[in-house]
Amino acid sequence: MSLKLLVLGLLMEGEKHPYEVQQQVKARGMDCYMKYAKGSLYYAFDQLEKSGMIEVKEVIRETNRPDKTLYGITEKGEEQFQQLLLEELQKPMQLTHPIYAALTFASYGDPQKMDEALEVNIQEVRRLAGLLESIQEEKRERLSWGARTILIGAIEHLHAEMRWMERIREEAWGR
Amino acid sequence: MSLKLLVLGLLMEGEKHPYEVQQQVKARGMDCYMKYAKGSLYYAFDQLEKSGMIEVKEVIRETNRPDKTLYGITEKGEEQFQQLLLEELQKPMQLTHPIYAALTFASYGDPQKMDEALEVNIQEVRRLAGLLESIQEEKRERLSWGARTILIGAIEHLHAEMRWMERIREEAWGR
DNA sequence: CGATAAGTAGTCAAATTTGAATATAATAAT
DNA sequence: ATTATTATATTCAAATTTGACTACTTATCG
């Protein structure tokens, strides 16, 4: 998953250190749809630097704190950004849904327990959908077009998901 | 992603060697929603064996061909299968859609090119949806409940996706 | 006031995933 | 008839991801 696009995209806005990127991801709610361990972010920075897409601008030493390494995007990096942007737009949504694998083997499972597990899932999807909808309402006009569009898409996907999961429960696991 | 559930699930049906699992995944069309490199499958078998979930039943030597290693599921493995089944049912769908990252930075991109890229994506989604729909019609009653249910879910997700992407194009990238 | 949590900034070994390489046989195409 | 492709069956080095750990600072809470 393209951490590289994330890093390049955020560096398009100005110089940043890895931890700052972390913060931005949280602050903008991107953590809903960009899941990764922190380590991967530092790795992405390293790789991008090695290939000349970004470069160190400054190392800030505040007493008794780990150093912050400020990175900026290079010209080559901006080109790479444009290309990655188009590549990601072409990538189809991943149909690799965990439930699909489970459904494949549902006939070997205990319907009662599977029902309980799916209920947990539905609750969680409902919660997330509610959360996103409240963000949509609260922030109304204060969101960028991109952020609004992502919200719309995510909410639609979550609703499709709920309808489908409820149908599975109604059909009582094929029994 | 749970290759382990895949392996255990298929071994529930009887002893198999890794390559046979590969074939089954293709034959049943699971390759639409289980994406992995071949190597990962052998790794999954190794890990499952080390932890006693499966065991070697036989090594078949056909002249001038690589050996096939037949694996069977153990009692411990069957318990693990039941647990994994429930775990996977609880995992929420991944909202980590490649387009989300791209949309976040759409304002730095060329609308014309982005439009072309998205068009490619829409075509591909349309093609896949058509493919799945034709499978749904052709095989009608010959599909298991699980397989039918997966098809229904996948098709619904793809349609939600198309509606959303078309809306993005109509809105002309926020301009 | 002292303990405890939460924030700052990053490193690193271990687990996992990828993708190319190997080596042979059978089938299809020109 | 010979070249090319597909199928069989697996291995392994390299790329990537994870998650635990370090080490210090600033709030928080009874």
From TrEMBL, chains A, B:
Entry-linked InterPro entries: Tscrpt_reg_PadR_N (IPR005149), WH-like_DNA-bd_sf (IPR036388), WH_DNA-bd_sf (IPR036390)
Pfam families: PadR (PF03551)
Domain Transcription regulator PadR N-terminal intervals: 7-82
Name this protein carries in UniProt: PadR family transcriptional regulator
